[in-house]
Write a structure and sequence with these properties.
The chain is α+β, with helices and mostly antiparallel strands and 163 residues long. It folds into 2 domains: 30 residues; 95 residues, Immunoglobulins (Immunoglobulin-like, Sandwich). Strands 3, 4, 5, 8, 9 and 10 form a 6-stranded antiparallel sheet that branches. Strands 1-2-7-6 form a 4-stranded antiparallel sheet, with no helix packed on it. The N and C termini lie far apart (141 Å).
């Protein structure tokens, strides 16, 4: 009787071990957010920023979350978009900023894998001022100056012709 109980106990332990190993083998690894990068390194307000993330895992869905802020006040229209897979573990997405007076953005990578959600830390990036054309801020004055010059030259030529 003891022999049969031991044999059943050993069989039960072997079956339990096999179930545990098969569960661990099929469960896969949790995704790991290895690297996050963005370009340009010093973005401006209203510019387009390319976010790149290196994420391992069993075919995860990767999102980038971006919110624009003016000092401590953040705009309600955050961008939370799915990143495109560019290689086995590389994901990329371009985000165009929407607010000219924003001076900081917060971004975060969010990964969904087999119903579980994983997040990177929330990072902040200071924005440079809006890109402007420093050359011609008051269009039209060059034309007026040219017309006045032609009139003045015409008057001087007319006066010299008379004398």
């Amino acid at each position: 009787m003891k022999y049969i109980m031991r044999q059943n106990l050993v069989s039960f332990m072997v079956i339990l071990g096999m179930i545990t190993l098969s569960t661990l083998a099929t469960a896969g690894n949790d995704p790991v957010i290895q690297d996050i990068d963005y370009t340009p390194n010093n973005p401006n307000a209203l510019s387009t920023i390319t976010f790149t993330a290196t994420v391992t895992g069993d075919n995860p869905t990767v999102h980038v979350f971006v919110e624009e802020c003016r000092d401590d006040l953040c705009y309600a229209d955050v961008q939370n978009v799915t990143m495109e897979k560019t290689s086995t573990i590389q994901y990329e997405r371009e985000i165009t900023l929407k607010h000219a007076d924003a001076n900081i953005i917060h971004y975060q990578i969010i990964v969904e894998d087999q119903g579980m959600w994983y997040k990177s830390s929330l990072e902040a990036v200071s924005l440079e001022g809006k890109e402007t054309d420093d050359g011609n801020d008051t269009p039209g004055f060059e034309g007026i100056l040219m017309i006045v010059s032609i009139v003045v030259i015409g008057i001087i030529a007319h006066i010299k012709k008379r004398f």
